[in-house]
Amino acid sequence: MLTPSVILSIQKLCSLHVGPIDLDINAQQCIGLSGSSGCGKSILLRAIADLTDHTGKMFLKGESYSSIEAPDWRRRVQLVPAESLWWHSSVSEHFQQPINQQYLSLLALKPKIEQQAVNQLSTGQKQRLAILRSLEKKPQVLLLDEPTASLDRDNTERVEALISTYLSTANAAAIWVSHDPEQLTRVANQGYKLVEGQLVTASSHEGDQA
Ligand SMILES: Nc1ncnc2c1ncn2[C@@H]1O[C@H](COP(=O)(O)OP(=O)(O)OP(=O)(O)O)[C@@H](O)[C@H]1O
């Protein structure tokens, strides 16, 4: 029986060499996930987002994965990949509505960026916009794959603050993948390391030697 605060429950989730994974994530909780390069962190996020083959059970607010249409699951469980994907030429075409001005400002992005061509943006600008594109869908779970890898310290802090604000205002949850143990100490309530396909509780000060 799920307790009301559990947003995402994962049971015996397996994909490629990752799993079986059991994990419950509560509302407003951010799980930090570390592990050596190539251990399968992205595979795990893609399995949870239903973007790669997997077995096992998942429940979103008590609703079984098998009873939720795939596009709806992917809207409610948003993956922000390490390298953002863009398929239209302009930024605005990737958003359903005008971009939230408050969010743009929080990420130090100018309003005019919405009208720019994607190929005129820096990697860091694209990374921040990809986060805003995911937030527009109002996800219940955010899967963040190294979301600040291309950012300087100031912008890293801006993204951390925005995600924290989003989780509390939307009562959402996140899994945050990072190779930076200090960042995971800042953003996560609980930390895990992926070792040989299994989640191991990570000490908040444990280094990631990847
Ligand atoms: N679709 C796939 N089919 C087969 N092997 C895959 C597939 N996707 C990834 N892999 C392999 O699985 C392993 C884990 O990849 P993954 O991208 O999950 O690693 P990671 O932990 O996110 O690494 P990094 O920290 O470097 O981003 C890698 O060896 C990769 O080559």
From TrEMBL:
Q: Which PROSITE patterns match?
A: ABC_TRANSPORTER_2
SUPFAM superfamilies registered for this protein in UniProt: P-loop containing nucleoside triphosphate hydrolases (SSF52540)
Q: Which Gene3D superfamilies match?
A: P-loop containing nucleotide triphosphate hydrolases
The UniProt record lists the keyword Oxidoreductase:
no
Keywords tagged on the record: ATP-binding, Nucleotide-binding
Which Pfam family, just one, is annotated for this protein? ABC_tran
MF GO annotations: ATP binding; ATP hydrolysis activity
Domain ABC transporter residue range list = 1-210
Q: What is this protein called?
A: ATP-binding cassette domain-containing protein
**What is the organism lineage in this UniProt record?**
Bacteria, Pseudomonadati, Pseudomonadota, Gammaproteobacteria, Alteromonadales
